[in-house]
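User: I want to check something. If I give you two sequences, will you return the structure for each one separately, not as a complex?

Assistant: Yes, each is folded on its own. Here is the first sequence with its structure:
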Amino acid sequence: MDSSPLRRTPLAAAAVAAGARMVPFAGWEMAIQFSGLVQEHNAVRQHCGVFDISHMGVLSLRGDGAKDALQRLVPTDLFRIGPGEACYTVLLNEAGGIRDDLIVYDRGRVAGGEGPENDSTDELVLVINAACAEADTAWITAQLAPEGIRISDRKGDGVLLALQGPEAAARLEALSGADLGGLPRFGHRELTIDGAPVFVGRTGYTGEDGFELLLGREAGLALWERLLAGGVTPCGLGARDTLRLEAAMHLYGNEMDATTTPLEAGLGWLVHLEMPADFIGRAALERQTAAGVSRKLVGLKLQGRAIARHGYPVLQDGQPVGVVTSGTWSPTLGEAVALAYVPAAAAKPGTELAVEIRGRAEPALVVKRPFYRRG
């Protein structure tokens, strides 16, 4: 059992002062909720909420040909994005299993090249999961450093915030004085707020419009306090989980892990086998594409008020056939929803299944994902 002390983000004390209830999460002490999960959830769906996500890892990859080098580690064609754009993708092992999911931001050419005749270089910024950050960093470094790519911690002791909800753009425009109307989803740029530089990506984990903001420690604390003083709702991990689940977004360790391929996890759209580049796990995914997958991740709606949880058995005709990966009561929809792995033959929407909950078989229906989509 790991007895290491929990790490604290630069905003931990401010979160407690704002009423946060703190819990251990991925080696960090994190806010699980402030005013209450449902209130925070609804604030993001209807107005605007802010999350401290400073536990996430943020890496900088610098060096000429950084994108070519990273391409060997991911199944997504990175040359479909250019400077100012980003994409969601996964790191794979040789078996096609998912080591982690991440967002890759293409920063283009930036200052900081090596040598008197090379004053600029390529830069990619990666945002990776907190639980995988150390392992990812070591593995990426082992893979890319021999090619001359410099890997560094871009966050340091800084702050990463997620400003999410239909009012997020207006809030950020008022703070920065910038017009964000032309910044598309997964676009990114540098802004200035109260004189401090802020790296801004139009990304998030809630199913709403929103932004993720990377800035220095003191500037991050000042921005957090300013947002709360302006009426933005502070939100914890509880609401983050119900929001992402309604949007059917994957959680590493639940919907995907090193034994799960993107094709099984419903992430086939990330796999670009048509590109000529080789990547780790390509051969395994080619074989699985040819043979077909034996199991698939599906969305379930329970027909009663019972709530399916991670690890609960999924039944078909009374027999166990799969397992729930995530489940909750949806505050937006007013019904219980879940994600689960089931045999491919049982994955068609409309298929009647059941989830075993406290010894009872609770009826469930396979439905299309996501459960919620902003209209």
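And separately, the second sequence with its own structure:
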Amino acid sequence: MIVCTAGDIFEYTPTNRTPWAETERKAKYMSQALGLMDYDAIALGEKDLAFGTDLLQGYADEYSLPFVCANAVDPDGKPLFEPYRIVERDGVKVAIMGLVSPERHIIAQVESELLGKKIRIDDPSEVALKYLPQMREAADVLVLLSHTGIETSEFLSEDLGFDVVIVGHYPAVAAAPEKVGNAIFCQAGAKSDRFGTLDLTLNDANEIEKFSGDAVRLLLKGPQNDEIHELGQELDRIEKEERREAQLASQREREKVQQEKAVATIHDRNGIFGAESCRSCHQPVYDSWLATPHATAFATLAEADAWDNPDCIGCHVTGAADKHHVMDVNIAPEIWNVQCEECHGSGLQHARDGSYLGAGEATCRKCHDPDNSPEFDYELYKSYGVH
């Protein structure tokens, strides 16, 4: 059995949502898995090449990956990887070449990476013609891993005379291998959805007499390689943890922004949080306050059609510096009524040291003075034990 693939195995897609570190990590885990699968030839697509020669060669060395690509070259025209490999099985020698499409119907970022890393993709037909004589001399069967799409693959087949063409860079699936001209074509789709099989029967002269195969759907059942499974599980755990941390960081940032807005608003109200903030810790006192005229002080003012009277508003809201004349009568609803902080002081101070400010007679007399509340009796009021 010979195992090979026609390219774009690493899926180079770094974006603002998928940063480079995550993309590279996936490629590393994929390389480890490929190394456990005993591939005989791995063609490189343009997305693979976008990772750069140094990184790919590092994976190849570390995990024994047999990369082949004849027409990806450096600026001097030197192949970046082996153009082809010779594999022998049962006395039959098979030459396997990899070619990548020079066409630029690829995402712009990949093209930019290829240019930035000085990777040139030469004409596949011209390059293949250079190596075919030595391949024919050394092998019985010629296989092309054609990461060029179906149309270019058909053209290359007619022009070059390969025996088998495995098509990559093309999402279509052929249920079984088929003869196109003199070559046997295999198409197993994309995204690792299927794997293709091809069985060849050769005569005594090592010429292909019969062929058969399938495009087998990969399903999450059946036997598995424990090492590869654990790699997948480990990568999944890492990615889930990173997503969780990213979500928490985003949530913390949103909460920070909201808190900063809330604090700014509170400072705009002279440090008044509002009774609802006090309620979370002081529910019984809050309920008691609701039963007092203080809780409806602004409504009383509105009923008297004095809600915009600057000489009245100060005693019917919370936090007014001058109780007997308010310059701006546009009072925010959050400070309507005589709330907790009118008598006990700003929640900013309470939150800092956990103490209340005393609410004595002088506090009450700011509003309950002889002119506005001539019948007010502080001792009687205090005896009620209400807010």
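Because they were folded independently, the notes below concern the second chain alone. Residues 343 and 359 are 5 Å apart (CA to CA). The two ends are 89 Å apart (CA to CA).
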